[in-house]
Amino acid sequence: MAVLQTARLTLSPCRPGDRADFIDLERDPQVMRFLNGGYAVDRKTADPNATFLMPTGTEPYVWTARRTADGVFVGWFCLWPESETLAELGYRLRRAEWGRGLASEGASALVSWGFAHAGYQKIVATTMAVNHASRRVMEKIGMRHARTVSGDFPDPIPGSEHGEVWYEIEGSQQRGD
């Protein structure tokens, strides 16, 4: 994993010292709204295999995002390998950083890195259909809506009845081939 630099962000491989910042994100009901209905995550009872949703600072595919100018924690991004050629993009930002274009800036840098250096041929991302802000991020970075799936969730959260959307981009699309 490389350190990635954008106009306003530095994305560095996460480390255990980032854990407190990650946990603070999980405690914000608005940040968690489309993930679990807005409840603070209880790491003691959470699924231990859910590192994609609850990084601890030791995951090999998670980058910590900080503002380059002052080092302030912005959030995290991940490019989780599903196979040698396919990865899933994920991100979570502090509410104070929403609406500034930082999610698309960081996600774009990570997707570009994934195609150029990690060898991925396709990158996917998912969110609830009603999460319009996250969908806009995916569209801004060139991802296209691939499908909407309905689910029968054991603990449905508001909006889940509209399904989950899958977006994707292939390396040739990202490079404009």
UniProtKB/TrEMBL annotation:
Domain N-acetyltransferase as annotated: residue spans: 9-172
Matches recorded under InterPro entries: Acyl_CoA_acyltransferase, GNAT_dom, N-acetyltransferase
First and last residue of the signal peptide: none
Stretches of the chain forming a coiled coil according to its record: none
SUPFAM superfamilies xrefs: Acyl-CoA N-acyltransferases (Nat) (SSF55729)
Pfam families the record matches: Acetyltransf_3
PANTHER family hit by this protein: GNAT FAMILY, PUTATIVE (AFU_ORTHOLOGUE AFUA_3G00765)-RELATED-RELATED (PTHR43792), N-ACETYLTRANSFERASE DOMAIN-CONTAINING PROTEIN (PTHR43792:SF1)
Name of the molecule in the record: GNAT family acetyltransferase
